[in-house]
Amino acid sequence: MQAPAAGKFLLFLAVAAVQCNAELQECTTACQCEMRATNLASHLSELLETKIQRVNTNAKTTLRLLAAAASESAKPNYLAPLAAIATEELSNQATALATASPTIMAAITRLQHLAVHYQTLNRLSITPHENSLIGTGETAWEKATFATTTLTQHSPGACAEQSKEMKNTGRHLATAKDLKFKDLKLHAGLSMTCARALETACSGVSSADKIWAQLELGQTVLATQASPLGNDGNYKRISAGAILNQLITPDNINENQTAVIAAINKLNTITTFEDSTFFTAKDTLTNFIKQEVLGIATGTTLSSEQQKEQAAKIKANYGTEPTDFQKKYGNRYNIQRPPTPAAKLERPKKLNKLTPTQTLLQL
Q1: 346 versus 276: which is more confidently predicted?
Q2: Which residues form the signal peptide (predicted)?
Q3: Residue 161: left if φ>0, alpha if ψ -120 to 50, beta else—which one?
């Protein structure tokens, strides 16, 4: 029986996970959305790598159990049901892995590309840049002078929503059907005015008069403004529009979430074989004790006394706690102990986990 404290802890984790999914809010900025996409892609990649390693470890355990059961001469052969269960479950787990992997890999790719889009927006969004032509006092603007300036790459500062997003998706894999990404585009606008100083209209082609131009790049929707230029010295936006659309939209992500969640659930059926309770919960083992050890015919209902005897045999030969497997069979048959959650897994195959920048370079 599970200890009350452990039970409460697991219940707390389950409730916390449900609450996190239920309270997932829309990411509001490109940097927050980039973090969300990167976090979720990383969690999916780690999950898949972990399950690949788990199937690999379970396959080794199965082979050792089969070899041990085949060489066991004692009757009854208590290793036989373990080998049978492991063989069947390994097949099921391999099928689950093969079925779920393409869906998970596709989801990782979508999220990586989505992160690249948000990162690009964040790098291209700049504060409005302006410059001006200066009148000369003559009759035409063709002799206007100007100071050349160099447009520089935008270096975004720290993401203001970093701690918020770490709480949302930094530590767990969100499995909500709506991951609340925001559809963000890069918008551009070109504005002009004729003014001595901004908001002070010019009066002609004099040395005090200037034609000003302003370039805007950002995530805010920009619209052109009504003609004519006017005489108030204020900018009028003469061109505007979205110049970078989101190819993978929030709808694209969400419409695949049902399949992704189903694939995650399949992967989560892949559990360790180095756990006595994994075996003792199977009918194959309990029927073996009933029929082969106690000699009770198939279909016979066990009396309370027989049930106690069956439980005693199971406890004596297989244990009642997950760690009993390692104590009874691990060292004896060289079956490796499963890594603790904090341990780094041996990875037989390194998945392609790229940062958004690396992904962008390969597109």
Answers
A1: 276
A2: 1-22
A3: alpha
Tens-place pLDDT, residues 242-284: 999 999 999 999 999 999 999 999 999 999 999 999 999 999 9
Confidence band for 205, pLDDT divided at 50, 70 and 90: confident
Phi, psi of 227, rounded to the nearest 5 degrees: -80, 155
Q: Give the pair of three-digit tokens for residue 263.
A: 């694939």
8 pLDDT higher than 60? no
Q: Tell me if 260 is assigned to some domain.
A: yes
Whether the predicted pLDDT of 352 surpasses 70: no
Same structural domain, 69 and 181 = no
Please report, for residues 8, 15, 83, 264, 339, the alpha-carbon distance to residue 12 in angstroms, rounded to integers and kept in the order given.
Answer: 6, 5, 35, 21, 24
The dihedral sign for the CA sequence 261, 264, 266, 268: negative
Same domain, 28 and 96: yes
Length of the chain: 363
Same domain, 130 and 226: yes
Instruction: Output Rg (C-alpha) for the chain, integer angstroms.
Output: 33
Q: In this structure, are 233 and 100 located in the same domain?
A: no
259 and 355 together in one domain:
yes
- Supply angle C-alpha 260, 95, 255, rounded to 5: 15
Handedness of CA 310, 91, 105, 259 (dihedral sign): negative
Name the DSSP letter for residue 231: S
Domain count, the chain: 3
Q: Which of 174, 244, 189 is nearest to 30 (CA)?
A: 244
For 132, the token pair is 């001006």
CA distance 177 to 352: 25
Give the domain range for residue 305.
276-321
Tokens linked to 349: 């195959």
